[in-house]
Every structure is written in C-alpha cells, then in structure tokens.
Amino acid sequence: MMNNLCVLPVVIPMAAGVLLILTHARPVVSRAIAISANILSLGVALALVETVRADGIQLLAFGNWPAPFGIVFTVDMLSALMVAVTMVVSTATLLFASVSLDDRLEKNFFYPLFQFLLMGVNGAFLTGDLFNLFVWFEVLLVSSYGLMALGSQGYQLQETFKYLVVNALSSALFLIGIALVYGATGTLNMADLVFKFPALAESGMAGVIAVIFLVVFGIKGALFPLYVWLPRAYYGPPTVISGLFGGLLTKVGVYALFRTVTLFFAPSSSFVLPLLSFVAGATMLLGVLGALSQWDFKRILSYHIVSQIGYMIMGLAIYTPLALAGGIFYIIHHILVKTSLFLVAGAVEKRYGTTNLRALGGAADGSPLLATLFMFAGLALAGAPPLSGFVAKFMLLRSGLEAANHVIVAISIVVSFLTLYSMMKIYRYAFWREEAETAIVVPGEPVRTFAIASLVTLSLVLGLGGALLLPYVEIAAAQLLDPAAWGTAVLEARVR
Amino acid sequence: MNDSLILATAVRITRPVLFLFAVVLFLKGHNAPGGGFIAGLVTAVAVLLGLLVHGHGNRKTGRPTFLYVVAAGLGLALLTALAPTLLGWPFFTHSFGFIDLPLLGSVELASAALFDLGVYVVVVGNVVTVLYALTERR
C-alpha cells in the first residue's frame, strides 16, 4: 500500500524547523508555529495508526524506486504507535517549555532544534532501510547535542562533550556493522535482509553482526553495561529537555533493538535472546540500585530510565506474542510517565530553584495538584494499579511465568519495589516535610500543570482502559513475530 | 590581520576560478562525480580564502544571515521533494525533460537539480556559518 502519509511525520517537523530558523528571534511567533506543527504531526500520526490498523502495513518508496533498490518507509503498527506517542509527549513538553524556558534559550534556536530532533526520531521509527536508520539516528543526535548544550553552563558542556564522544563511537561502530551487512548480503533494505540474512548463520557472520548491533543499540538505548553515560548527561540540560530526552531518545535505541532483533538476529543466532535476557535483568537491577544512592530529583529519575529500559528488553528477550506486546505497551507507558515525572521535577525546580532533595521540602503544601500528579506518575512508574505501568508489568510478568523464565520475573518484582521506594523517597523529601525553601511564584504554572496532567491522565486512561490499547500492541507484536510476512509485503508492493 | 601581498594576489586570482569550478562541479554532478554538496564545499573554500585575506572587516558577525541561507536551502530541497506528492506521486519522485537552447543544443532539465541546488545552498550556508564562528574574535 503506497501512501504519502508515511513521510508526513518527518516532513512537518522539517518544514516547521525551517520556518523556525527564520523566526528564531521572535519567541511568540516561534511558539505558535512549533505548537501548531506538533499538533498537526500528532493528527497525522494518529491517522497513520488507524490506517495501519485498517489496511495493514503502509509503504512509501522514495522517488518511486521499488523496495530492494530505493529507500522505503515501512510503517507497521509498532512504527505508527511509536510516532504517535512521540508526538504526544513532545507536544506536552513543548507546551511546558514555552512557558518555562529562559527567553535567551528560546531565542538560541531551541524550537528549530526541537523540531529537527522530532524529525530524526520519527524518521528512525518509520524507515525500512538499515543505512537510512543510521542517517536518522545522526539527525536526532546532532539536534540532541545542540539541545543538551543549550545554555552553555560549564557542567553541561563537559557532559555534552562526553555524550558526543560516546555517541560518535557508537555511530562509527554502527557504520562498521552496516558495512559488514552490506558486504555479506549485498543489500541494506530490511525487507530484503529478512530473506538474505539467515544465510549468514552458517559462516558465523550473523553472530558477529548481531553482537556489533547489540553493542551499538545497547549504547544508544542505555543497556547494561553501556548505560554509564546516561545519568550524568541527562542531569545537565534544562529539565524540560531532560524530560524529552529521558522519555524519548533512549527509546529510539530500544525500538531499533525490537526491529532488528525480531527481523534478523533472533531468527539467525540462538545466543541473542538469552543474552538479552541477562542484559535486561542486569539493566533493571543496576539502574535501580544506582537510583537508590542519589539525592537529586533529576538524577534519581535518570537512573530509573536505565532501570525501566530493562523491562522493555525483558519483553523482547522472552519473545512470545504476549511478551512483545507487553514490551511495546511498556515503551509507550514509559515514554508518557517518565516525561511527566521529569516535567514535575521541572515544575518543582521552577518554584524552588533546586532539584536537590535535601534542600527541598513541603512542595505538597505549596502546590497540592503537582504533588498529586507526581504521586500518580510515581505509582505508575512503580507499576501500581490502576495506572498504565500495572498493565504493562502484568503482561510482562505473566509472559515471563508462561515462558518459565523465573529469574527475570523475580528480578523485575524486586526492582518494582525498589522503584516504589525511590518514588516514596522523592515524595517524602520534596513534597512532605516542612517547607524548607520559600517558593517563588513564576508565571506559567497553570500551563505547566496542564502539560503534566495531560500525560498523567493518559497513563490513567491506559491503565483503567488497558483494553483500548491492547488490540494495537497485539497487532504490533504479531507483525514483529512474522518477519517473512512483513518482508513480503514490503518487497511485493507495486510502485505506481 | 597582517596583510600579505602574496596571499592577497593569489586569492584574487584563485577565487573566481574556484567559483567557476563550483559551477562546473554542480552541473556535472547530475550524471558524474560532483554535485551540490561538493560544489558547496568548494564555494565555502573560496569564502574561507577571502576571510584569510580580509578578515571580518567591520562586519560584526555573519552568523544569523548565513543561517537564513541554510533555512532557504532546506526549504528549497523540501519543496522539491514535496512537489510530486501534489500530483499523487510518491515523495521525492523526480521528473526531467529536454529543452533546446541556442548554442548549447538539447539540454536536460531535471527536478533533481533543484534539490541539488538546495543541498548546495545548505552546505554553503552551514560551512560559512561555522567558519565565521571559528574565526570570530571574541
């Protein structure tokens, strides 16, 4: 099914980014353009989800060159859902940023960088070509360097430089992996690779390539033992930007793992899934232990990003329809909830001027609504019913038990409790106690609260009405587990 | 800037050649090695030579202006890629035709060249922005 709709989630942010360069000196105009572009992309993304549900996989062959030769965008349910949730959180983040960021930062190309970042993220979710995936990763990384260094504080520049070096290394490795794939199979089109990659299993090349890609996406997705760059890097930038990064960026790496493992690596190398299972457990456990020792709102949340990624990989490692559906549900839940938690941290920082838990206190008196929102989001992160985290974790635990993978189930339960402990710690120190700092009244609080509340409400809706999202993630999981059907659909699509 | 007569003279001769070379590369790029990207780099080298000889002069900074050039190039490339979708063709589909010009004979006109022009403009704008930023005296 050839459809130009597929490219709009990339085109709209790009067009907006171009306009926003021109209007960068006028924040009011920029806000209006950026927010309307985001809402437009959100509409397109939802339309894509519905189209895929109704008509199956959607395709777009750029320049009308058919699949194995030209670059194609292949939109299955996973891609469409990822783009949709990306647009939801980025719109909330943008609303939050438009009333929170310093005028100076806004004028310093925040909005164009933000839109180019979205362009890269959406492109990575939509593409059906391995090299093109690399290119979109670069687009989003280059924009993220700019956003991460926005404001140019000493600490920020220092951490951005490390972030840059780590990512440049992993990108180089990515390129080496791609070169190996191309050398061994003569194609980089993912659909074509579905049929050509398994032939490499005999020579052992498949295993080598799988390891390279696991390392690459392990770095980008912050998996054990390659997550060390994340907590420090995400502490530096303004909290809104950390929120967007924490919710979104590592998940692009996780998405790439879901895509490549189900398409090539799991069918051709038997060691991949057990390895992922081990990595998932270690990521969960070490991430949450890292969080326990921290005394800063943002740092705790950053370590929890790492820990939560373990759950997503757990779904991938168990590799049953229910587990994959649970993993995808978890990604969506996590993106919403983690971003909302960071935004709460941002709102608290705005009021009290710090995110250090030792200096904070009494925020619940100052703003009960914010405290309530944090409580809901924190409980969702820990996996308490009736929020979205519960549904996601229930699916994962159940699939783990069905697959008799008891170790990972046990670890994930322990980690859930430790997550709850961390959230309680934040709640106790930042929101309870006597008011330690005097609140400053900063304009824009209602908009900030609205942005957070909309994300938390979505988490509640997905928790109470898990059945709403369930059919979608089940379609996504079924499509992931049948790479041959996916490949055939892409290769046999006729150009116009 | 300490004035070097040798450098200034050399640049005065090489700059026009570089600009012409960029044009040749751009036009050849459709079917042979070359194209907008490399032509943009060659043009940027010409600009860099000018910077080496004349410095920034009285200009405060060229940064914002050249960023607008980047935006223009991106916009041009995007519009070229979007145009076919209006006719129902997939994104990026190119079209071409031949036209008879006096002296040159039959010349191929391709929509891909417009995209390449966008690339050229982006590269020039981008590299010049970076060069200005790096050579600025704080």
What does it look like?
The complex is a heterodimer of chains A (496) and B (138). Chain A has 20 helices and 2 strands. Helices cover 77% and strands 2% of the residues of chain A. Chain A starts with 7 loop residues before the first helix and ends with a helix. By secondary structure, chain A is mainly α. Chain A has one domain. Chain A has helices at residues 8-22, 27-55, 77-100, 103-126, 130-148, 154-185, 190-196, 205-220, 229-235, 239-268, 272-292, 297-318, 321-352, 363-366, 368-382, 388-402, 406-431, 445-464, 466-481, 483-492, and strands at 58-61, 72-75. Helix content of chain B is 67%, strand content 9%. In chain B, β1 and β2 form a beta hairpin. In chain B, α1 (5-28) packs antiparallel against α2 (36-54) and α3 (63-86) runs antiparallel to α4 (111-135). The longest helix of chain B is centred in the last third of the chain and has 25 residues, at 111-135. Chain B is mainly α and 138 residues long. In chain B, 27% of the residues are buried. The mean pLDDT of chain B is 83. Chain B has one domain (5-135). Classes of the chains: A mainly alpha (496), B mainly alpha (138).
How would you concisely characterize the structure shown here?
Chain A has 496 residues and is an all-alpha fold. Chain A has helices at 8-22, 27-55, 77-100, 103-126, 130-148, 154-185, 190-196, 205-220, 229-235, 239-268, 272-292, 297-318, 321-352, 363-366, 368-382, 388-402, 406-431, 445-464, 466-481, 483-492, and strands at 58-61, 72-75.
